[in-house]
Design goal:
By secondary structure, the chain is an all-alpha fold. The protein contains three helices and no strands. The N and C termini lie far apart (32 Å).
């Protein structure tokens, strides 16, 4: 097993994917990546950052 897989947290990944998907943001199924298409706007990036921060805030309570 490689180190990346060993360091993974499937429950956390599932939470983040579902949390963001329920708010209109789809993550790539690859670990440690946030891929954006060329049509992504600065507002799209800001929205991703805001929703991701909200997810982290909910996790850390």
């Amino acid at each position: 097993m490689d180190r990346t897989r060993a360091a993974g947290d499937p429950e956390l990944e599932d939470f983040l994917h579902l949390y963001l998907a329920n708010r209109g943001i789809l993550l790539t199924p690859f670990h440690n990546m946030a891929l954006m298409c060329p049509d992504t706007t600065e507002r799209d990036v800001d929205t991703h950052t805001e929703v991701f921060a909200a997810a982290l805030a909910e996790l850390t309570g």
